[in-house]
Structure formats: structure tokens, C-alpha cells
Give the backbone structure.
Amino acid sequence: MAKLYGIGVGPGDPELMTLLAVRLIRQCGIIAVPRSGQEVNAAYTIARGACPEIEGKERLELEMPMTRDREKLEACHAAAAAQVVEKLKEGRDVAFLTLGDPSIYSTYIYVHDRVLAAGYEAQIVPGIPSFCAVAARLNEGLTEAHQGLHIIPASYKGLEEALSLSGTKVLMKSGKSIGKIREMIADMDPPQEVMMVERCGMEGERIFRSAEEIDENAGYFSLIVVKDKKN
């Protein structure tokens, strides 16, 4: 039976893709990518850096709009899964490319669940998460000994409460809220160690090592790390 593979391509640098991801991309005849209005799909561009031969494969673009309208999202996820199932019915394996890891805030998982429910095979292929790549780029550990690690969707409700948690806070999906988030972090008591990387491993990468440095106009691919200061 044909299978859907949800392949994490990592955060940006093609050299951070796993050997398994590269092998499966080469093996699959169809490459599925989410379409959200961007001219260039970031996951596809990263994969092409490790697998130039991807250019010769059939490309299946799946509508995945940047919206929080639940009805619209539900319709798009169902339509995307139906498109994938049609290819699986033909006996063709499909590689769905996603940034970072498919299990962390990825649009892939909505298709994955529906394809499984339809009676077809689907497999998650892990990739290096963005926050691990950011920690490496900063040359910093995220946690030590008893410290907790909290992964937080920063543009959603509950951020203030989440920032009060002890340990390291990783703020993802900041979107257009970076300016507001920067002010919130700067006012924290006790003061925190704050760092941000924009476009980690991609062209245009920028590093910020304090809340004051953070550019409120930074792009979507920005990740903020908030750590308790060492005594």
C-alpha cells in the first residue's frame, strides 16, 4: 500500500536534514507542500538544497491559509487530505514537507490524522526542531539539571501566565506580536535572559541577545528564548 510521509526538513539549513528524510524524498514520486500565499515554500527550498533532484518530481500544493477561522481551516485540512488520498489510491507514495519537526505546530499533522482515518498509511519522519537549532546557533544550552522547558505559542492567549513558569520558555509563532512580547518580557521581575534568532539557518538570519535589541518588525520565522538568569 502507498504511504504518506510527513517529513521534517529542519529549521533552515539543508545540511541539518536527516539521512532518512533525504532518502524518503528521493524515494517518493510526489512532493506535497503547504501553500499559504508565500511565493516560495520554505520547506521545499530547504529540501531542494539537500536533494536537487526534487525539481523533477510532481509537486502537490495543498491550500493551508494563515488564518484562525476554524471552519475555513477544517475545510482546507479536509480538502488537503482528500488530495493526498487520491494520490495514494493511485499507489504512489507522497512526501509532505514541513519545516522543523512534523509533531511541533505543523500543518502536516491535520492531514496525517485524516489520512489514517481514511484507512491509509502515514508516517511521521522527525526533523530537527527550530528551538534546538536556535540553541545551537546561540551556542547555549536550553536547560540544565532540574530546569523545565516550556514551548509556547506566543501569539495566543495565556502568554503572560506562561512566562511566569520556572525554567526556559521558548516562544514560537510570535507573528506580528513581537513588539508586544518584547515589552512584556522587558517588564518581567526578576529580569530574564532573553535571546532571539530570526530565520535560523536561512538567508537573512539575524541574532538578538537582549529584549532591547529585538526588532519588533522581525519576520514570521523568529524564535525567542527566555531563560531564568543564573545566580
Remarks:
- The chain has two domains: 3-125, 130-228.
- The domain at 130-228 is CATH 3.30.950.10 (Methyltransferase, Cobalt-precorrin-4 Transmethylase; Domain 2).
- The mean pLDDT is 91.
